[in-house]
Amino acid sequence: MTTHVLILCTHNSARSVLSEGMLNHWARRLGQDLQAHSAGSAPSGRINAFAVEALQGAGIDTTGYRSKSWDEFTSPDAPPLSLVITVCDSAAAEQCPVFFGGSGQPVKVHWGYPDPSNADGGDEGKRRAFELTRQAIGYRMLQLASLPFASMSQADLRQALAEIARS
Questions:
Q1: Which of 1, 25, 40, 54 has the largest count of CB atoms under 10 Å?
Q2: Cα–Cα distance between 159 and 100 in angstroms, integer?
């Protein structure tokens, strides 16, 4: 059974998109039956061009990526979520809708990252910030994709997520 992970950020244009791309990349590389999705509470309707560039530079196909609302994951036909990750401070402070997992509520965790869209230094500064953010996110997503989801209880998953957050 596929493990579905939803990654949230307010605008679903940068950090959540980088996270979706990196988690799906590592899951495929490791042969994990894991599918990452991203969404936002107030989606911008566009993916930041620097996020696309950073992912493509890492060899990740961004075809089909789009900025979307978290409402898409609250409908009865949405995939059953095992884990919901917030990656920006504004999304962590918001009241999230109720998401249902395969066996009730999914585990929720906050892994915040500074917004690379706010980097100084013009386009080169932003490009560098997006790449550094992609690398930082990629490291955590590699650890996440390496977990044995099928054999983990929610308590085990919470503990593993806390250890990843400290790394």
A1: 54
A2: 20
The catalytically annotated residue of 5, 9, 27, 129 is 9
Catalytic residue among 42, 58, 96, 152: 96
Does the annotation count 111 as an active-site position? no
Dist. CA 122–CA 54, nearest whole Å: 16
Is residue 13 within 8 A of residue 20, CB to CB? The reply is no
Whether the model clears a pTM of 0.90, i.e. scores above it, the answer is yes
Rounded-to-5 percentages of helix, strand, coil across the chain = 45, 15, 40
What are the pLDDT digits (tens) for 142-154? 999 999 998 999 9
Residue 97 has phi, psi (to 5 degrees) of -70, 170
CATH for 3-166? 3.40.50.2300
**In the chain, where are the structural domains located?**
3-166
Active site residue 124: no
Residue 60 in 3-state DSSP? Answer: coil
Q: Is residue 163 among the annotated active site residues?
A: no
pLDDT digits (tens, 9 = 90+) for 79-133: 999 999 999 865 555 555 556 555 568 999 999 899 999 999 999 999 999 999 9
Backbone angles phi, psi at 87, to 5 degrees: -120, 5
